[in-house]
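User: My advisor, Dr. K., asked me to get a structural model of this assembly before our group meeting. I'm new to this, so sorry if the format is off. These are the inputs:
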Amino acid sequence: MPSPAVRQARSPMAAPQSFLWSRRIFLTLLTVFVLLPVYVMVSSSLKPLEDVSEKFAWIPSGLTVRPYFDIWETVPLADYFMNSLIVAGAATVCSVTIAVFAAYAVSRYSFRGRRVFTVTVLSTQMFPGILFLLPLFLIYVNIGNATGIALFGSRAGLVLTYLTFSLPFSIWMLIGYFDSVPRDLDEAAKVDGCGPLGALFRVIVPAAIPGIVAVAVYAFMTAWGEVLFASVMTDDTTRTLAVGLQGYSTQNDVYWNQIMAASLVVSLPVVAGFLLLQRYLVTGLTAGAVK
Amino acid sequence: MRRIRAAAVSAVTLSFAFTVAACGGGSSGTEGSNEQPRTLTYWASNQGASLEVDKKVLQPELDKFEKRTGIEVKLEVVPWGDLLNRILTATTSGQGPDVLNIGNTWSASLQSSGALLSWDAKNFEAIGGKDRFVESALGSTGVQGQDPAAVPLYSMAYALYYNKKMFADAGIEQPPTTWKELAETGRKLSEDGTWGLGAEGSNLSNNIHQVFVLAKQHGADFFTPDGKADFTSDGAVAAVKQYVGLMAKDKVIAPGNAEYAQNQSLSDFAKDKTAMVLWQTASATFASQGMNEDEWGVAPAPVQSGEPGLGRATNSMVAGINMAVFKNTKNIDGAKKFVKFMTSDEEQIILNKAYGSIPPAKAAQQDPAFDAPALAVLRDTLATSATALPQVPEESQFETVVGTAVKELFADAAAGRAVTTESVRAKLEKAQQQMPEK
Amino acid sequence: MTTTAAPGADERTARKNGPGAASPGRRPGRLRRIGLPYLLLLPALLLELLVHLVPMVIGIVVSFKELTQFYIRDWGTAPWAGLDNYSLTVDFDAPVGEALLRSFLTTCLFTVLSVGLCWLLGVAAAVFMQETFRGRGILRTIFLVPYALPVYAAVITWAFMFQRDNGLVNHVLHDQLGLTDTPSFWLIGDNSFIALLVVSVWKGWPFAFLIVMAGLQNIPRDVYEAAALDGAGVWQQIRRITLPSLRPVNQVLVLVLFLWTFNDFNTPFVLFGKAAPEAADLISLHIYQSSFQTWNFGTGSAMSVLLLLFLLVVTGVYLWLTSRGRKAADA
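Assistant: The format is fine. Below is the predicted structure of the whole assembly, which you can bring to the meeting.
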């Protein structure tokens, strides 16, 4: 476990009142702005349906936990939950592993095409998703027809897609992070008889844990929240949460209270994980992204 | 090193091979096969209160079908927001369900893609013949003069639903039968935070349905007989202006309705905030909103004058769901059997009862269940005064561009800007220019 | 693939990741050393090819085809359209081109404002929270919540709040503060731009905050101490030390924010549904509508390709400018 981020007090001098007051006011306003939707989410999820389709009220007239039970009935939320977990989890593991290898190569070797590779991979970050949605879909179907590997409509197809979404950023961040790990360390390991990959896994990866965690969190969140590709590439059995949540607005009605309850439920794992790992995130980014 | 380069090259080549294969599309020209006779995949549209409700309605019927034929039907209920995109991608890739539900207004658009099985005389014979279905429902199954691309499954029509309590409170005894009466009645009801009529100003399809009917009443059509877009005729402009005018001029629609797109107008109705809505088969929704059947009444949708009929007296579009078979199916015989089963009189009665719609099968319509006043109005409207939306390949583009134009006009009206013949014509002009050239 | 030499740990891994790519076991050490980096890159490269590059090539091909509903079932039969799709999209006097141009300009304005505000809030919050004070940890946690929430959940909540009749926003602005005469529309009409901006900033600024916070940790403490000894106050220290030392961080941050914001699809899609109001018609949603709603994938692809070209140029110029600036600063 790395030590928490080293704090730097800016000034040994006492800060002036003007600074303190600006800080108080600014941070208070910002907190209100940030928390407003969270409050709405929580309070609305506890209101009966008649109330949420009425005028907004700060204090709910009556509280009910019914929506939290109903959400599992209205749509098969538990199935969607599992799908999202599997897809996002697998995409994260694959994305991080592949990014570690690629970043190691770029960081530790000089070879022809190094720059081309980095630039190409990074530039995919700017592709508008809409450009390759349909072509990608076709490729998956054709791979399926040619090889029998079902990519379209399967979780595997989504995993492949999502891991490449986070890959460019992950590679680029890990390059930065690996660069900050002193070369002497892996040279020493090689002298001790480790191969190049031994050095990677025994020396560099352990030293880069915060960076890897940061990358993993990013990859997971990317996969957890994606809507567009999931809406085209999933079916009943593989539908993920981001798409499944739309099931709460039906032909007949919009179940706002259930939408809010379900949104909270599906957000909890990511938010909790994210916040637990935030320490790593800051240290990871410090060495990786901002060098 | 060279090896690696060779590997990279072959990887790239491989990818491009897929590309080329992709360009070949997923389909051959054949009309399906019988390679997998034991199973079928069925995409159902969301008709009930939720996806789960639909599964509960349909699954027992599918089990019945399996018991009779030994064919297992894998059901997927597709939410409306996804359905058209899913069909599109299935069409492009050739990988889709065997049997599917489509909105009947999409029939001609989907027909033009060539992905759906044509229901020629022979195929219709396999499900009991074309004349089992009512005329109006058949009118919305594809381009006229061509074999239908789908078979009617559930039929619906627009009617005027009114809130009995609000009518009684305002001392109104009869629901309006003409637009003029509707505006007068609406004004009486629009006070103290209540409103005469509800609308879904941001719902493109709903906008289209309403202005289409009004255009018919003004003697206009949005397409010329040979299928060219014609959005700016005087009649079309008058129709759009009249519909948006209910908010802009008559002020019987609450300005807030301009942003409604998720049936909020129905929940306003159920909460006694809006006295009337023009809707298709709303009974199930009212029930789910906690409204008793005796709290609302239903009357034919208004016309300009006289009695509802055809032509200028049209008062509804032909709404409904059709059932189609993908040409690529590997179980063509099973698929036809399944369509036959679902459109059989027995199933028609069960399913349409469950969803509050009208069976397009003539014999099933005679079932006493559809004599209830609420349904009788819909049934009669379908039989006598409903017209199908234009059956042209560009129908879905039409819905998008004209529906958006009406949405923008509602936004203008809600913001207090004037909606004039000129502003309506300008919007429709712009919409027309966005249509693909023919 | 055959190997004779006893496989080492590295080789096993290498082979797992790139079967058939090479057989390093047979080669002498030197070649293996040269081959290794390529082997390590292979998975990433193959996936990028499969998911990004090849589809992009197909997309470009499609942009030269007349791919409408009549041909989607069999792409090969779609006739070549030459430059028709492009001339249609860049004819700014005709409605299609005009709408695209308007959407493009809206997106530019939106991106500039959103990135600017995200950056401003992120930097301000990070600078204010550089020093320890009571509650700092909790605040930091709170501030990261919008970033951690799944897009769909967050944006749908905002849509709920922006409803005209029942939303929180009008409840506060109109009912409680009395700032407006009548309740405003936020999801249709001109205000929709503001609504979109608010949501985008709310979602995006924590990322700027996170990155800047990380960047600030690289500033050595003694720089501040030296400045303090020179008599510089807190505000001066921020201006003279903190902000200038953030420059390399900003270079990356602004670029990433720019690309994400410009290409954002999820936010407007969830907020407005499939037809965004004119004032908030962002380019990615516009293209989506041009291809999926109207089933004209050729035109849609042409628009995407133009967008891609624009982003390439902007990014290239940006990187060239900033790296030149950096070199000049270093020299």
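One thing worth pointing out at the meeting: Chain C is about 70% helix and 0% strand.

User: Perfect, thanks a lot.
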